[in-house]
Amino acid sequence: MSANALYTDLSDYYDLMCADINYQAQSNSIHRLHQIFGNGANTHLDLACGTAPHVRHFIDFGYKSSGLDLNQPMLDKAQIRCPEAQFSLQNMSEFKVTEHVDLITCFLYSIHYCDGINKLKECLASVHSALNVGGIFCFNTVDKNKIDSDSFVEHTATSENSFFTFRSGWHYSGSGSKQLLKLSIEKTTADKTLVWYDEHPMVAFSYTELKEALKPYFEIHIFEHDYDKITPWAERSGNAIFVCVKI
Predict the structure, then answer these.
(1) pLDDT digits over 12-21, tens only?
(2) Whole-angstrom distance, CA of residue 159 vs CA of residue 165
(3) Containing H/E element for 212?
(4) CA–CA separation, 135 vs 246, rounded Å?
(5) Strand-by-strand arrangement of the 162-172 sheet
(6) What is the edge-to-edge ordering of all strands in the sheet holding 239-246?
């Protein structure tokens, strides 16, 4: 089953699959960073927004918020969650906006969904073009050189008389610019169990490579991957939050 088929066929389970994510903490952290580094305005665009849980929080913070994604079933659910927001079916590597915005976000490591280094660079160029002067781009990411391919995360949930187990983990071969996000979803209802497996091809890069790609467009600030406090990155962890101010 392809990545697109998995997310389309199981879009009803997407929020359940992400039930252990603290969207409130993530959104609040980036809101605070925007207050520190941003231009004081409040228009917002969320790349790869999915069903828009982050967008919901930014609207509640007082932003004029919008989102884009490649998956229409996700966007349909996003519109229900956030009827006051605007959503568009676009590829974040080559998106366009009708009006410039002040904050662009990309949560849940979704920046890695760019199809290769060149597409990543196109995404950064698109972000730069879409931002107002002094606007910021915030995203979280993983350094390919720090990936533990044997590590994975797991959580369980119950919905409509079914028990779900979700597992995900990064895999990097050790060379090149491709990595995989490996997923499995197990659904048990009564005595029947269904299992889906998938591998999402994603772009892999070191933080050195990423900073070089960002430099032509942004002033770069890097923080530890901790949504509860703002701590400068100590250059040891392979996970970080990037705050990039348009120059």
Answers:
(1) 778 888 888 9
(2) 11
(3) helix 207-214
(4) 6
(5) 153-159, 162-172, 178-189, 192-203
(6) 86-89, 64-69, 43-47, 101-106, 131-142, 239-246, 218-224
